[in-house]
Design brief:
Layout lengths: L17 E3 L5 E3 L19
Antiparallel strand pairs: 1-2
């Protein structure tokens, strides 16, 4: 699968996406629409 890169400008709306949670479930950014804050942390493994 080819990775697609997008640049998001400060203050713009983030594009929708779904990722796997630490517990194995699916979490979508849209699940948090209307909430005050959303914090995203992307951990990068070094092998």
């Amino acid at each position: 699968m080819a990775q697609q890169s997008r640049t998001v400008s400060v203050g713009s709306t983030a594009p929708g996406f779904t990722l796997e949670s630490a517990s194995g479930g699916q979490v979508s950014l849209s699940d948090f629409r209307g909430k005050r804050c959303v914090v995203l942390v992307f951990l990068r493994g070094f092998a």
